[in-house]
Amino acid sequence: MGLFKGKEAEKGAVCVPAMAGSDSSISSRSSDTSSDDDKDAENRGTWNGRMDFLLSCIGFAVGLGNIWRFPYLCYKSGGGAFLVPYVIFLILCGMPLFFMEISYGQFASLSPITVWRMSPLFKGVGYGMVIISGIVCVYYNIIITWTFYYLFMSMRKVLPWSDCDNSWNDERCVINKFADTGNVTLANSTSINGTTLNATVVAAVAANGTTLNSSHLMTASEQFWERNVLEITDGIEDLGSIRWPLFGCLVLAWVVVFLCLCKGVKSSGRVVYVTATFPYMVLVILLIRGVTLPGAMEGIKFYLIPDWQKLLEFKVWGDAAIQIFYSVGMAWGGLITMASYNKFHNNVYRDAIIVPLMNCGTSVFAGLVIFSVLGFMAHETGAEIKDVVTQGPGLTFVVYPEAVAKLPISPLWAVLFFLMLFTIGLDSQFGMFETMTSAFIDEFPHLLKNKKVAFTAFMCFVEFVLGIPCVFQGGIYVLQIMDWYCATFSLMLLSLTECLVIAWVYGVNRFYKDIELMIGFQPSNYWKMLWCFITPATILFIWAFSVSQLEPVTYGSYQYPTWAIVFGWGLGLCSLLPIPIVMVISICREEGTLWERVKKLSQPADNWGPALPEHREAYLATLDGPRRRLPLTMRDDSPIYSPKKSACGGASACVLIPEERNLLSDSVATMTTMSDRSVIGQSTEFTSMLADGHKPPVTTC
């Protein structure tokens, strides 16, 4: 087998074969390529500044769950006492996983799929992360769609959910379900999201004067949600017709996402200065207004006063663990993606402390805002606070709007509230959507590298089409299935696999060296102990608790049919199936015994490491054994090495500047000792010339 094939090479070029098993064919370099290390990775880019990354991470981590789930959990689980298990799990699980993900994402400058060059056998984990983000992107934009609808409907002198005089209201509508109507009591009235309310009325007079049983009563805000926004059907068996106003809002939502992300981090990095800070301004304004309302302090006391006996309940600890796991954003792929656009020497250690603490603080602060207004609502309606508290969409689209409607200048507060929800949702959507696009562009650079805008538009269209069933009249039943199954058990198992692979397969000591290379020092051994033992055990605890709480999907009192539950489990498994599938395919493609294949695929690929050459050389210097060399196959996405066609039978030419020749000669010398790559062995004279620093002659292929 000849070393070179084809016609005469370009003058001053040397044809070098690619190493077996690499991800790319042959890498090359033009002699006039700039070596400016701070220059953006070609066609990929970096953040404009450190604050871009920090705000993007905060925006990604701080999601709707901080507004509609944490305050409810805190009240239900002992008030201020709930913060004890919450902070403990933040330290044991949240921060370690956050630190781990942004560290290896920044180190390799690669997104969730391609970053698994660190251990190709487990590349399916990356595919799983992308699948989860893709599914959640579909229904997360539906929530943004609802927010848009409420925002537009808030721009009126009178909020449409503040009275019962609208076309969608019926005889069951009441302005105040908790109003005192004499010596009767309300029992077991079910709210929009299935929360059982114990109120003070059994029967009330409806809007048209008809006496109704309390179980049939609906507030004006409930009827606006069910009969105007959703026009909800009886179940998933009947999706009904499309809701055209929601369809239009869905189109608008995806147009906004496209405009913000069409140029990648260069565009989103500017947008987050508004979307990540605006929610905090609104929360401060709403809190200032909230604490001045009658009954507000009672609501805040109800939220914060600790009930230490609750800490003896296993469920309280389980709820705290689950809330931390989902709120910080581990295993979605978003943290890896955003960190991959960092400068190599960005201090990830500092960021891993700041962002989780900001996320935790935001949750607590949002609870003050929510409960100050709920306290006011309880005061106005004569109900107890526990009777008006709920979580999920029932809080943000029913209870809180109802409370806002009772405020002076209510449209102003409604607009601010829904603008806040919109920006919070948009930030989380940025991270998930960029995870998908960056993952595919990094995995298929030759096809997509220079088509960022077109590919972003294509993915927006695909996600939009997939979301259309959710804007049908029965669409909320579809959304509930996706939310219930797609990001629960699979997310935990992906996170557990990720943690174990980095700590035990890639090696925690090697990972520490990588971090030291970036930030200039090794973190405390405390992190090693967490990554190797405590954090995996914590994830197993969360998983076991989730299994113990397993129930079939429901929406309020509606029970889903068996086929819908099976469909939901199928969605959940979609993100786990790539792990064994990619393992089997990778093993089948390798040569050798089964153990040899597994061992080779568990080790970092030849093109694993930092993107920029000087960082790559520093990384290679930290390695021991045969891998302590510069691989002949350089990364395709390196800004220094870019393919250039030669006359070598269509292969790529590798044009070297003098300072690289010694490194390449070491690589060639190393390769000559390897029998399976002995094709280079006959090039002794060529190697000698490179070692002496001479420019090789033009080679005739």
Question: What keywords describe this structure?
Answer:
701 residues; mainly alpha; Amino acid/polyamine transporter I; 2 domains; two-stranded parallel sheet; two-stranded antiparallel ribbon; 27 helices; 8 strands; disordered C terminus
Helix residue percentage = 55-70%
| CATH fold-type name of the largest domain | Amino acid/polyamine transporter I
Percent in strands: under 5%
Low-confidence stretches: 1-42, 180-211, 629-633, 639-701
The main pleated sheet reads as: 2 strands, parallel
Structural class: mainly alpha
- Any idea how many domains? 2
Structure description:
The structure is a single chain. With 701 residues, the chain is mainly alpha-helical. It folds into two domains: 1-37 and 615-701, no CATH class; 50-158 and 233-342 and 352-583, Amino acid/polyamine transporter I (Up-down Bundle). It has helices spanning 50-61, 64-68, 70-76, 83-108, 123-153, 220-230, 244-261, 265-275, 278-291, 296-304, 314-328, 334-339, 348-381, 385-388, 393-404, 410-443, 445-448, 452-467, 475-485, 489-519, 525-548, 562-574, 578-589, 594-602, 613-621, 658-671, 684-691, and strands spanning 173-174, 189-190, 196-197, 203-205, 211-213, 218-219, 554-555, 558-559. The strands form four sheets. Strands 1-6 form a two-stranded parallel sheet. It holds the Pfam family SNF.
Topology of this structure?
Elements: H1 50-61, H2 64-68, H3 70-76, H4 83-108, H5 123-153, E1 173-174, E2 189-190, E3 196-197, E4 203-205, E5 211-213, E6 218-219, H6 220-230, H7 244-261, H8 265-275, H9 278-291, H10 296-304, H11 314-328, H12 334-339, H13 348-381, H14 385-388, H15 393-404, H16 410-443, H17 445-448, H18 452-467, H19 475-485, H20 489-519, H21 525-548, E7 554-555, E8 558-559, H22 562-574, H23 578-589, H24 594-602, H25 613-621, H26 658-671, H27 684-691
Parallel strand pairs: 1-6
Antiparallel strand pairs: 2-3, 4-5, 7-8
